[in-house]
Design a protein that fits this description.
This protein is an alpha+beta fold. It has 23 helices and 38 strands. Strand 20 (about 285-290) and strand 21 form a beta hairpin.
C-alpha cells in the first residue's frame, strides 16, 4: 500500500527547523487554557515592556554554555530554550532524489530524474502576494514533542541544476495538514554530554498525500524523456490510484552553535502511490510494533508480487553520533544497532522471508524501504519480524485517525452554542479494510471533551466517524481501542465574552491586553524580525494585514498568524473590529462626508545606451506607480464608503465596487485593485534597478515625470498626470498597460521592454561575472502564477538568462503575455479593463472619488495647481518630507551593495513601513481636506526629484536618516491646525531610534 507499491521515488536531504522554544512552559510561566503568562508566580504586568519578560525568562536557571554543559554564565537556559526567537519555519534543504524503484530489486540508474531537487513550500500568500513561502512546523501542545503538525502548501521537483526561475518537472498543491505519526526517543543510543541530549536522539515520521485530480497537480509538462515518469503516468491512470503519497522521516538534530538559530535534521523520504483504501496521513500496510521500544519504532509490511515489502523509516536506532559537525549541516552517525538478519515469520513460526543485515544497514539508498523474496505464502495469519534482541509483532486490528492532532473551540455556554469535530477512523484487519463495530473509545480527561457519537460509513468498508464535543478549555487525549491510536485534542480558550464588547471599545490598548500581549511575550520573533505588537504605530499601520493573517478562514494556511494556532475565533474577530476602528479614526469629520458633483524606436546597440534606457524605464515605472497610488487614494476607504451608503449617497453595489466587502478579506474593490497594481509597479521599479545593478551600475532612485517632461522623455501620447479616479483616468491606465499583441496607434510602453529585451539578448559582455549576485532579492507582491511555477523566485538577476526572465516577468504582469496566456486574467491590463467596464456599466452613474485637485503642488509650477489652504499645506509638507525619507532609506540600502534579501533589510523594511504607516494615512487625510480652490480638495503633492546621495559609511548614513526622522517628528508635533495621527509621529520616533541602533550596531543590518 502507498509507498510500498511501485513505482517509488526515494530522496534524502536536510530539514531546516526554526521552531520557538520559549513556549514549552518549562518553569510554569504559561497557562495554556487561558493564554496567561506568569512571572514569579504572578500574571505578568502587560503595562511593562515585553522585553522585561524576555529577559526574565532567559535568566531562569539552570544555564548552559555553548558546549551544552552547566554554566551559571552560559548563553542557553532551559526556560527560553535554544531558539526563543523561532518563527515556526520548516523547509527541506538540499533534498534530492537518490533512487527510482520500479519493481522489486529494479532501480533505474540513468534516468534524468535522478539527482533532481525536491522542495517543500508553504502556501501562497494572496494578501502579500509573495514567493519563497516557508512551510510551518507547529506544536499544538508545546509542552509535548509528539504533537507537531506541518502546514505546507506545495511540493516541487526540479532538475539538479535548476535555479529559482527554472521550470519544474513536477508540482502539486498540498491540501492536508499532516502531523507526526510515529514519534520515537533514544533513536541515538549513546548519550551525549549536552543539555539537549534527549532532543538529539528523537525521531519523527510524517506522511501526506496529494490528489492527482487537483488542477495544480502538474507532472512533466516539460515532456522530458524519463522512463520512470512514463511508468508513473501509467500507474496514475488507474482508477484505484488517488494520487501520490509522501512519507518522510527526520532525525539527528544538529547541536545549536548559538542561541536563537535554526537547527537541522537528517531527512529521508519516499514518494509512492496513494491508493483507494489508504489513509492519506498514516503509513499504510500491516503494522508491526516492537517488543522493546527503547529506540525502536514500528514497521509496515506488505506482501505483493512474491515478495515482502518492508517500510522501516525509524525502526532500528543508531549506536552513536559524532559530537561535532564536520563540513555538513548535521552530525555524522555511527552504525545502526545490529540485530543480525531479520526473519519474517507467521504466528505459527513458518519462515516467510529474510531481510539480510547488510540490506537494512544501507538505509539511505532506499529510505529504509526494502523488498525481499517471499519464501512461503502462508501469510494469512499474524506476522512478526524477529532479530537478535528484538522482535516486532502484528496485532489483528489497526485503527487510526486521519487527524491525530486537532483543535476545537470552547463552548459558548451563555449563548448555548457548542462545538464538535468529526474525525475519520480507518479500521484494518491484517492490513485490509474491515468494519469493526466494537471500537472502544477512552477520553483521558472527560471534563474537557465528550464523545458525541460514533457512526460507520455505509459506502466505504472499514471507515468510521468519531464526533467529539468540547466542554471546557484544556488539552486531552483520546485513545481508540489501544494506546497505539492516540488523538490529541486542544480545546481553545473561552473568549466568547469578548464578542460582547461594543465595537468602538476595541482599541489598540484593548487588543494588546486581551490578545497580542500573550504572543508578544512568548513569541518574540515578531518583534525581532517583523514588528513588535507592543508598538501601536506598527499595529495601526498594518491593521488590515493583521486581520487578514488572523482570519479564521486562513487557519490551515502556512502564513496564518499566530503560527502556533492557539488563538480562539472570538479573539481573531477582534482584529476585524480593530481594523474598522482604525479606518474610522482616519476621518477628519465623521459626521460630514461629502462628494462634489506603430511607433518605431532606435535599436539599443551598446551597453551605455542600455544603461540610459534602463534608467528611463525606472523613471517610467516610478511615474506610473505614483499615478496609480494617487488615483487609489482619491477613493474612499471602506469606513468612509459605509457612511456614504448610510447617507444614501452610494448604493450597496457602489460600495462593493469601490471598497469591496465589509469582511476586509481579499475583495477590496477598485481601491484595493489599483493599490495592488501600484505595489506590482513598485516591484517592476525594483526589477529594472536589479537589471541596472546586474550590469555594474548603482541603484537609481528615478525621477517622477509628468506633463510635457514625460512626453519628451517617453514619447507617449498618453498624459502623465496626478488625477482622482474617474472614467477618463481608468481609461488612461488601461492605455498605459496596452499589450504589444493588440494593434494600437502610437508608441506603447510595451515597446520599451521589447527593445530592452533585445539588447540583453544581443549585446555581448554585459555581465562581468555570470553568477555574481547583485541588486536586491524580494518576494513581496508577486502573483500566484509565479509562486506556483517558481516558489523560490526572489527577483534574482545574475546573468543573461535571469535578466530575460525578469523582463518577461514585468511584461507578463503588466500586459498578460498573450491573450491565451494564464497570466492574462491577472494582468494589469485585464484588471483595469474590468474596473472600466464595471464603472461604465454600473446601474446608477456616480463619481466615486473625492474631488481632489489635478497635479497638486506646494509651490507654483507650470501645469499644476497650487494648494493654498494652510491646513492642507502643513500636512502636504509632512507628506513630502516622508516621501523623500523613504527614497533616502532605499538609496542608503542599495548603496551598501547588499547580498541579502530585501525582505530582511531593516532599511528597506523601514521604507515600506513609512509608505504604509505614514504616506497612506496622510493621503487618506489629505484627499478630504479643502485645497483653497472652490470645489476641489487637496491631495498628496507631486513628488520632486530626489537629491539625496548615498553616504558610503553605513553608520553615518543611519545617523543622517535618524536626524531626518527626528526633524519630521518634531515638525509633525508642531503642526498647528489638523494634527496628524499620533501613530505617524510614533512611527517616525520609532525609526529615529532604530536608525541610531543600527549605527551603533545594537541591531543587525538584516532582520
Amino acid at each position: 500500500m502507498s509507498i510500498l507499491n511501485f513505482p517509488r521515488i526515494h530522496f534524502k536531504g536536510v530539514a531546516r527547523l526554526n521552531v520557538p522554544t520559549g513556549n514549552r512552559n518549562i518553569s510554569n510561566t504559561i497557562n495554556f487554557a487561558t493564554n496567561t503568562v506568569y512571572q514569579d508566580g504572578l500574571p505578568f504586568d502587560i503595562k511593562k515592556h515585553p522585553s522585561e519578560f524576555h529577559k526574565y525568562l532567559r535568566q531562569i536557571p539552570p544555564r548552559f554554555n555553548l558546549q551544552g554543559t552547566p554554566d551559571d554564565n552560559g548563553v542557553f537556559n532551559y526556560a527560553a530554550g535554544y531558539n526563543f526567537l523561532g518563527n515556526n519555519h520548516f523547509s527541506w534543504e538540499n533534498a534530492s532524489i537518490t533512487s527510482l524503484n520500479i519493481r522489486p530489486g529494479i532501480f533505474l540508474k540513468n534516468d534524468v530524474l535522478l539527482g533532481s531537487k525536491i522542495e517543500l513550500w508553504g502556501h501562497y500568500n494572496e494578501y502579500l502576494r509573495t514567493t519563497f513561502n516557508r512551510a510551518r512546523w507547529v506544536d499544538i501542545d508545546p509542552s509535548r514533542d509528539d504533537t507537531s503538525q506541518i502546514y505546507a502548501g506545495q511540493i516541487c521537483i526540479k532538475e539538479a541544476t535548476a535555479t529559482a526561475n527554472s521550470p519544474y518537472i513536477f508540482s502539486s498543491d498540498i491540501n492536508c495538514v499532516h502531523a507526526v505519526r510515529w514519534y520515537g526517543e533514544k533513536y541515538i543510543q549513546k548519550k551525549q554530554s549536552h543539555f539537549l541530549e534527549q532532543e538529539f536522539s528523537k525521531t519523527r515520521v510524517f506522511q501526506f498525500s496529494i490528489s492527482k485530480n487537483s488542477e495544480n497537480f502538474i507532472l512533466n509538462h516539460l515532456n522530458i524523456k524519463s522512463e520512470f515518469i512514463n511508468y508513473l503516468l501509467q500507474e496514475l491512470q488507474k482508477d484505484n490510484v488517488l494520487g501520490l503519497c509522501i512519507q518522510y522521516c527526520i532525525f539527528n538534530m544538529s547541536t545549536p552553535l548559538q542561541p536563537d538559530t535554526p537547527v537541522f535534521y537528517d531527512l529521508f523520504g519516499t514518494i509512492g502511490l496513494w491508493l483507494e483504501n489508504d489513509m492519506s496521513t498514516f503509513p499504510n500496510g500491516r503494522v508491526l510494533y516492537p517488543e522493546n521500544n527503547q529506540g525502536f519504532g514500528p514497521i509496515v509490511i506488505q506482501i505483493q508480487d512474491n515478495c515482502a515489502s518492508i517500510n522501516m523509516p525509524c525502526s532500528i536506532p543508531f549506536i552513536h553520533r559524532e559530537e561535532k559537525i564536520a563540513d555538513q549541516l548535521t552530525h555524522t552517525l555511527g552504525p545502526k544497532y545490529s540485530l543480525g538478519d531479520l526473519e519474517l515469520r507467521n504466528k505459527s513460526g513458518v519462515l516467510l522471508a529474510k531481510l539480510p543485515e547488510y540490506m537494512y544497514l544501507k538505509y539511505l539508498e532506499t529510505s529504509s524501504v526494502f523488498d525481499v523474496p517471499l519464501i512461503s505464502k502462508c501469510t494469512d495469519d499474524n506476522i512478526l519480524l524477529v532479530g537478535n534482541g528484538n522482535k516486532w509483532e502484528e496485532s489483528d486490528w489497526l485503527i487510526q485517525a486521519e487527524e491525530n492532532v486537532v483543535s476545537i473551540e470552547a463552548p459558548d455556554k451563555k449563548n448555548l452554542t457548542y462545538f464538535s469535530k468529526e474525525i475519520k477512523l480507518f479500521c484494518y484487519f491484517r492490513g485490509k479494510p474491515e468494519e469493526k463495530r466494537d471500537i472502544v473509545i477512552f477520553i483521558e480527561n472527560n471534563s474537557i471533551l465528550s464523545i458525541f457519537k460514533l457512526t460507520f460509513s455505509k459506502e466505504k468498508k472499514g471507515l468510521a466517524f468519531l464526533t467529539i464535543k468540547s466542554k471546557k478549555p484544556g488539552i486531552s487525549e483520546i485513545y481508540v481501542d489501544d494506546h497505539r491510536c492516540k488523538i490529541l485534542v486542544r480545546v481553545l480558550s473561552d473568549d466568547w465574552n469578548l464578542l460582547n464588547i461594543p465595537d468602538h471599545q476595541i482599541t489598540y490598548e484593548f487588543l494588546y491586553e486581551h490578545v497580542m500581549s500573550y504572543y508578544e511575550l512568548i513569541y518574540p520573533f515578531m518583534a525581532d524580525k517583523v514588528f513588535s505588537m507592543a508598538d501601536q504605530c506598527k499595529c495601526e499601520t498594518y491593521a488590515r494585514l493583521m486581520w487578514q493573517m488572523c482570519d479564521p478562514l486562513n487557519r490551515d494556511k502556512s502564513y496564518y498568524m499566530p503560527s502556533t494556532r492557539e488563538m480562539s475565533y472570538a479573539k481573531s474577530m477582534l482584529f476585524l473590529k480593530y481594523l474598522k476602528n482604525v479606518e474610522e479614526s482616519a476621518l477628519n469629520n465623521k459626521s460630514n462626508i461629502y462628494l462634489d458633483t506603430n511607433f518605431k524606436t532606435d535599436e539599443i546597440s551598446t551597453k551605455e545606451e542600455l544603461i540610459q534606457e534602463l534608467k528611463k524605464a525606472v523613471n517610467l515605472e516610478l511615474s506610473i506607480m505614483l499615478q496609480y497610488i494617487y488615483a487609489a487614494y482619491s477613493l474612499p476607504t471602506f469606513a468612509v464608503g459605509e457612511k456614504l451608503q448610510q447617507s444614501n449617497k452610494w448604493t450597496s453595489e457602489q460600495l462593493n465596487f469601490v471598497c469591496g466587502g465589509a469582511d476586509r478579506r481579499l475583495n477590496s474593490g477598485w481601491r484595493g485593485t489599483i493599490l495592488e497594481i501600484a505595489h506590482e509597479e513598485m516591484i517592476h521599479y525594483l526589477v529594472v534597478n536589479n537589471l541596472l545593478m546586474s550590469i555594474g551600475e548603482s541603484f537609481y532612485p528615478g525621477i517622477p515625470l509628468f506633463g510635457l517632461k514625460a512626453y519628451e522623455a517617453f514619447g507617449l501620447d498618453t498624459e502623465f498626470s496626478f488625477e482622482p479616479f474617474s472614467e477618463n483616468v481608468i481609461a488612461k491606465f488601461v492605455r498605459f498597460e496596452w499589450p504589444h499583441y493588440f494593434s494600437s496607434t502610437g508608441k506603447s510602453i510595451a515597446e520599451f521592454y521589447i527593445n530592452i529585451r533585445k539588447a540583453f539578448q544581443n549585446i555581448p559582455n554585459l555581465f562581468s561575472n555570470e553568477f555574481n549576485k547583485t541588486g536586491g532579492e524580494h518576494h513581496l507582491f508577486l502573483n500566484e502564477l509565479i509562486n506556483k511555477k517558481f516558489p523560490s523566485y526572489q527577483l534574482e538577476i545574475n546573468n543573461r538568462e535571469t535578466a530575460l526572465f525578469a523582463i518577461d516577468f514585468i511584461t507578463e504582469q503588466g500586459e498578460g503575455g498573450a491573450i491565451n496566456s494564464p497570466h492574462y486574467s491577472k494582468s494589469h491590463f485585464n484588471r483595469l479593463r474590468k474596473i472600466s467596464k464595471d464603472l461604465i456599466l454600473s446601474k446608477i452613474p456616480f463619481e466615486p472619488a473625492f474631488p481632489v485637485l489635478k497635479n497638486p503642488v506646494l509651490n507654483p509650477t507650470p501645469g499644476c495647481n497650487t494648494v493654498i489652504n494652510s491646513h492642507a499645506r502643513e500636512l502636504m509638507l509632512l507628506y513630502q518630507g516622508c516621501h523623500e525619507l523613504t527614497f533616502h532609506m532605499m538609496i542608503q540600502h542599495f548603496g551598501q551593495k547588499p547580498l541579502g534579501s530585501l525582505r530582511r533589510s531593516r532599511l528597506m523594511n523601514a521604507a515600506i513601513d513609512i509608505m504604509a504607516g505614514i504616506l497612506r494615512p496622510l493621503s487618506a487625510q489629505l484627499v478630504t481636506l479643502p485645497s483653497g480652490i472652490p470645489g476641489r480638495n487637496a491631495g498628496p503633492p507631486i513628488p520632486q526629484e530626489i537629491q539625496f546621495k548615498c553616504i558610503q559609511n553605513y553608520e553615518e548614513g543611519c545617523i543622517e536618516l535618524s536626524n531626518q526622522c527626528k526633524a519630521l517628528a518634531k515638525y509633525a508635533r508642531g503642526i498647528k491646525y489638523i494634527q496628524p495621527s499620533i501613530v505617524i509621529i510614533n512611527l517616525l520616533e520609532f525609526y529615529e531610534k532604530q536608525m541610531i541602533d543600527l549605527s551603533t550596531k545594537k541591531l543587525s543590518r538584516e532582520g
